[in-house]
Specification:
single chain, 4 domains, about 40% helix, elongated
């Protein structure tokens, strides 16, 4: 008896167009969309890049960049950015937002070391040219420039990058992303984990879920584009039948000295002239248990050296700040340090690099405490 041979059905061959390179190819698969694995990977990468660009376009950070570009009147304030430098700028932006209690107050500005309004130079919008500073000191500082910071000559600016103050935000945003480069923006979004605002997320959800055939939904279709973030959030909760949950940020009141101290440590990483004082300040801070005792002169001196003033010009103020806050503090002794103990429990470390102008004595008089290098009597 002969066994019948069962023939397998012949698969139908298709000639679809590759979803990435747009070339036609042959396949028997009913679902295959790409001609090669390389095209498939490239398509996924392009999709991720598109999403990152979209996230940037709807983020609070990039709209902050738009406002700064419009204020400066030129796109060139963003000259020279890389994904890493944009991520660093984003970190400064977030820190300033926290210092201002998430928008509840405006006590601190991101002030420029080299001003965008300089006569011959244009200060850049880079983390290395910004200091989170008390607003009053920034306003008083104006366009004063000690020579530090990150800037370019105005003679090198291409006029085609100018931005009019009345240019629409959306148009400026498109130009801004093109100026930085889509690859740089996409990489920065991934590196810094930049997210679109909650308002945009709610708007996108409403666009997808409002049913124009439902009269209760249809009344909102024309108005959602003009709604603010909280209104969008409330409407989404209403559509979903959920109770609105308010998230409260933990707000901390930041002192001028605390904010400037953090900025000193940040800038000392890439500014050698600040490193010695930053280390001394950090050592006293780690050893003391009581709040810092500071005055307006101390705050001004910190502000000035962060904005490029020579440390030696305010060295006496900085030294007095450390001595005043080292009273009763036992500091860690380094092998190369000479330890000198004075009256009232003052313990000081004298390093080779420390200025000799540091006060050596502390006495109580009828009018208060005396600091100096000789007895007042």
């Amino acid at each position: 008896m002969t066994t019948a041979t069962i023939k397998k059905p012949v698969k139908t061959q298709r000639r679809p167009t590759c979803g990435y390179c747009k070339e036609r190819f042959r396949t028997t698969s009913a679902t295959k969309s790409f001609c090669t694995p390389e095209c498939q990977k490239a398509a996924k990468a392009a999709k991720r890049k598109s999403k990152n660009i979209n996230d940037a376009s709807h983020s609070a950070f990039f709209y902050h960049l738009v406002s700064e570009v419009r204020r400066a009147g030129n796109m060139v304030v963003l000259h020279g950015h890389t994904p890493e430098s944009l991520a660093e700028l984003h970190a400064v932006y977030k820190q300033a937002f926290r210092a201002n209690q998430y928008g509840d107050v405006k006590h601190f500005h991101m002030s420029h070391i080299a001003s965008v309004k300089g006569n011959n130079t244009l200060g850049l919008l880079h983390a290395h040219n910004l200091v989170i500073s008390p607003a009053a000191l920034n306003r008083a500082h104006g366009v004063k420039h000690y020579g530090a910071g990150k800037y370019i000559s105005r003679t090198s600016i291409d006029p085609r990058h100018s931005v009019a103050k009345d240019e629409r935000e959306g148009a400026v945003l498109v130009r801004l992303i093109a100026y930085l480069g889509e690859d740089v923006v996409a990489a920065a979004v991934k590196l810094a984990n930049i997210k679109p605002t909650d308002g945009h997320k709610h708007l996108a959800w409403l666009r997808d879920n409002l049913d124009p055939t439902n009269p209760e939904h249809a009344v909102h279709l024309d108005s959602i584009e003009k709604m603010k973030g909280k209104q969008l959030k409330d409407l989404r909760a209403e559509i979903e039948g959920k109770e609105v949950q308010e998230y409260a940020f933990k707000r901390t009141v930041h002192s001028d000295f605390a904010v400037l101290s953090v900025e000193l440590n940040r800038h000392a990483v890439f500014r050698p002239e600040l490193q010695e004082f930053a280390e001394r300040l950090q050592q006293v801070s780690m050893a003391k248990r009581n709040p810092w005792v500071v005055n307006e002169e101390d705050i001004q001196a910190l502000f000035d050296i962060l904005h490029g003033r020579d440390v030696e010009e305010v060295q006496d103020v900085l030294d007095e700040l450390l001595v005043r806050n080292s009273v009763g503090v036992a500091l860690k002794v380094e092998p190369e340090a000479e330890v000198i103990e004075y009256a009232e429990g003052v313990i000081e470390r004298i390093f080779d690099y420390m200025p000799l102008t540091i006060p050596l004595c502390r006495f109580q008089t009828e009018t208060g405490w005396y600091y100096g290098n000789a007895t007042p009597f």
